[in-house]
């Protein structure tokens, strides 16, 4: 069989390629019905509902695609990093969640001694937010220019740096306060 031709392999086999005789489908359906009387009902039911299920599936697909298209257009009009690409969406979500967690930590650490630092930091955050809003408009105007995208990412990094600096200052104030209390106790 190493060098046998494919025709020689199948020459003894009889492949009947002719059409089945007339009435084959009816006879086959009758045999199915004889074995299982509910089979014919299912076949008829399936053929009756098939066009309706196809139409329903088509409508569901149109609704899904329409919603996706509307959602993507809304994202593109927003001017966020998320509208640029899936990677930028992940970047924006990462920075946003990090900023929110650090803001929450600052609010928890707020005390009379650190109130001035926290207020100043929140004012600076508002300025960065305003700058970010301008960058979002620039992104829409520029057609997703890489320089604007870089500036938006840089804005997020500046916010995080600001919050980290504030947290560091709060920790230093807490340590100084603890050292002063230790000296007063002695």
From TrEMBL:
Segments for region (Disordered): 1-40
Residue stretches spanning the membrane: 48-70
Keywords associated with the record: Membrane, Transmembrane, Transmembrane helix
Biased composition range(s): Basic and acidic residues: 1-34
Taxonomy, superkingdom: Bacteria
Protein name as catalogued: DUF4179 domain-containing protein
């Amino acid at each position: 069989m190493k060098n046998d031709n494919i025709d020689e392999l199948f020459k003894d086999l009889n492949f009947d390629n002719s059409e089945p005789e007339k009435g084959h489908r009816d006879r086959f359906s009758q045999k199915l019905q004889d074995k299982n009387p509910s089979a014919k009902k299912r076949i008829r039911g399936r053929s009756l509902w098939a066009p309706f299920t196809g139409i329903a599936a088509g409508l569901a697909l149109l609704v899904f695609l329409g919603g996706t298209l509307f959602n993507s257009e809304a994202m593109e009009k927003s001017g966020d990093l998320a509208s640029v690409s899936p990677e930028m969406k992940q970047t924006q979500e990462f920075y946003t969640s990090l900023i929110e967690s650090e803001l929450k930590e600052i609010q928890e650490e707020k005390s009379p001694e650190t109130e001035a630092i926290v207020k100043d930091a929140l004012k600076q955050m508002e300025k960065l937010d305003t700058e970010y809003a301008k960058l979002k408009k620039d992104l829409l105007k520029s057609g997703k220019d890489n320089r604007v995208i870089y500036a938006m990412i840089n804005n997020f990094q500046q916010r995080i740096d600001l919050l980290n600096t504030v947290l560091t200052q709060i920790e230093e104030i807490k340590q100084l306060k603890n050292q002063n209390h230790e000296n007063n106790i002695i």
